[in-house]
Specification:
alpha/beta; 7 strands; seven-stranded mixed β-sheet
Length: about 170
């Protein structure tokens, strides 16, 4: 488990003095690094804990010594316990089910999208192919977070990809 704080940035968002607490469940070190670099580029103050699989994610969330995150990003394909299994466990836990869960995947397969929506994910992101695309997607996630749109996910804005974000801007 790795923890880092991004507090040297300022934001004009409503919660500018409060950093967003994030847990990133991602087994690929390159993808972890890309996420962190894109997050830094958004200028959103944040604290990030990274875990390498769904089991570590659930254990971290259930750890009374850890404060609950504002949002979790969960890669679908991970060893030990995959993202879908971790999502199901989180959403079935009374203490954890309200935490917004954003799924990350290279896949845009309708079955994956539908299954994670039904299991209670807040958003499904197809991993972008460009760094700029990742920044745009993360900015959209934070706007949805700040406007409380992740609390009750809506099917027509559930799937986000580099193409859908680029069309909106």
């Amino acid at each position: 488990m790795t923890s880092s704080k991004n507090s040297d940035v300022t934001s004009s968002e409503p919660e500018e003095n409060e950093s967003v607490k994030i847990i990133l469940a991602e087994d690929d070190k390159d993808d972890q690094e890309l996420f962190m670099e894109a997050l830094n580029a958004t200028k959103v103050p944040s604290e990030v804990i990274t875990v390498e699989n769904g089991e570590e994610l659930v254990n971290t969330l259930k750890d009374p010594a850890e404060s609950k995150p504002d949002i979790v990003f969960i890669d679908i394909n991970m060893p030990v316990k995959g993202g879908k299994e971790a999502l199901a466990e989180i959403k079935s836990d009374h203490e954890l089910k309200e935490i917004p869960a954003v799924m990350l995947s290279t896949s845009n397969h309708p079955n994956d999208i539908e299954e994670t929506f039904k299991k209670g994910a807040s958003l499904y992101i197809q991993k972008p192919s460009s760094f700029t695309g990742f920044i745009l997607i993360l900015k959209k996630v934070f706007i949805l977070h700040w406007t409380k749109a992740l609390i009750n996910p809506v099917k027509n804005i559930f799937f986000v990809s580099e193409k859908t974000v680029s069309r909106e801007d």
